[in-house]
Amino acid sequence: MKFKFLSIALLFLPLTFNAMANVDNHHRIQDINKMDDKVYLTTFSPLFNDDEWVLVESGKQRPFSGFVDMFEHIINIIKVSDKQTQLSLIADHPDLACPAARTEGIAAASQEEQKSSGLNSCTQEEAVKLTQLNKQYREKFGFPFLLAVKGYDKAAIFAEIEDRLNNDQATEFNIAMQQYYKVVMLRMLDLVK
């Protein structure tokens, strides 16, 4: 049911966001359908953190009729993969962290998303708290806390991770996958007209 709602919402998102965004970096679906495989992979690599296989498979499913069709093809590739493959996708996602607490480099797309939520201006106490929450979450569920942070501020992110620590494994895995899909959708909005 949630996926159907997401699909309906997606019909209007490209129009809304593209009207507000600088569309010079956006690619028209007609051009995406004509891209050679290497250009397609390079263009859409920001959608994923080193998980090129999804793009390889989605590239084979072109032509797409529009944004929603492209998104649904990409997400369906992930949805039909086995649980271990899905776990590896979310496991590759970086922890949400304040810059002082980052232990690894993160992709430009992740940096921008985290910056927009205010995580780049954490106090020392906030950095320590978020590191502890990430550790608790990872120990409980076996994968990093995943949240499409666009529209969230620091307080909402902290509240979300604290709330989700109360979930059981199956519930949290499903939420993490939905958040993963949302991250992909939001990143696509930056790339597709």
From TrEMBL:
Stored Gene3D superfamilies: Oxo-4-hydroxy-4-carboxy-5-ureidoimidazoline decarboxylase
Keyword Lyase: yes
BP-aspect Gene Ontology terms: allantoin metabolic process; purine nucleobase metabolic process; urate catabolic process
Highest rank taxon of the organism: Bacteria
Keyword Cell wall biogenesis/degradation: no
Pathway entry: Purine metabolism; urate degradation; (S)-allantoin from urate: step 3/3
Signal peptide: 1-21
Keywords, in A-Z order: Decarboxylase, Lyase, Purine metabolism, Signal
Catalysed reactions, as listed in the record: 5-hydroxy-2-oxo-4-ureido-2,5-dihydro-1H-imidazole-5-carboxylate + H(+) = (S)-allantoin + CO2
EC identifiers of the protein: 4.1.1.97
Coiled-coil residues: none
Identification of the protein by name: 2-oxo-4-hydroxy-4-carboxy-5-ureidoimidazoline decarboxylase
Species this protein is from: Orbus hercynius
Lineage of source species: Bacteria, Pseudomonadati, Pseudomonadota, Gammaproteobacteria, Orbales
